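Comment thread on ticket #2218

A.B. wrote:
> Attaching the input chain for the structure job we discussed in standup.
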Amino acid sequence: MEQDKTLGEEIRQEEQQEQDIPAVTFDEFEIPSYEEWKEAVVALLKGKPFEKSMFTKTYEGITLNPIYRMEDLEGLTHNKTYPGMESNLRGANASGYIHKPWTIAQECDAKTPSEANEMVKYELLKGSTAASVVLDTATRKGYDVDTANKEEIADIGVSLSTLSDVNKLLDDVDLEKFEIDIYAGASNIALLSAVAVVCEQKKLSLKKLHGAITADPIGELALDGKLTRPLDEYYDEMAHSICWAEKFAPELKTVVVNTDVYHNGGANDIQEVAYAMNEAVTYMKSMERRGIDVNTFCRHLRFHFSIGANFFMEIAKLRSVKMIWAQIVKNCGGDDIAQKINIYVSTSSFCQTVYDPYVNLLRAATQSFSAVVGGMD
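C.D. wrote:
> Ran it. Output below, let me know if you need it in another format.
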């Protein structure tokens, strides 16, 4: 009892001390003007030119001021909008991540279907919410193992040649619960067919299949410099995949604009966005000529961006993409839902180093933070 009494007195004394601490204010500090701040900086520069030392030009050619003030916001209107409204600058969904957190997709790059299956199930068990699989170069080009170059078989991911391979890959993976995320290369017709058959065999509803099994023929052309067939044939197959998904798997994305080829090739953020928009509009026009309207096309389209090391620039990139795409779709006759872009991102392999994994960990953390603040899916 004596100990309890002593403890109570100590607590009361601490509470009294806390109450005795005056509230912290900054009234004693004068707010300096910009001219006063600049004068102090010039003195610290000791003769170095202010304009040259304090203004930084980015890789994109944008000049960053050394300090930003409330006056810099005058005339800006987009910063006063809300998520899911107007240009979607602040986000395509009004509730942000409250009701639908961002999808987590750790890429699985095992070399055989069985190994990839084990890796996918492990990642889903550990917190991933999408079954993300990397295909090898041969599969992305549409070649089976008996016709492909040896160097392209199981080089960067799993090789899929038969229905049995796809069955092994997706064995015991709950595709109704988890998203699927597979980039198929220039065409996804063969993979979509195989996945549809596997779902039918497992009695899984295609209506509940969600995520993306995507193709990007222009991206493959930019990466490799050539395609195995004429581009128009790939557009025909793209239209076919969209029509199939619209009827049987409405929650599935089948087209992707993948900017990795531009990002890893050295494009700055402005160029990356420009190439992505140009590619998407090209696909949109090609689908319109094949009888697919803007709204239908947008329902099955996904954008993929890599996030670089410039923290604020990458946030700006993702926000500008949402605004630009909304304006494009609106002017092409798309409705409000079609204007809401679907963005997948990856941390940048271009910005990683082979020498220091700990630095890579820090870079991946800041890149992921940029992606979340920028508003990815």
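A.B. wrote:
> Thanks. Noting for the ticket: Strands lie at 56-57, 63-64, 130-133, 179-183, 211-215, 252-258, 301-307, 343-347.
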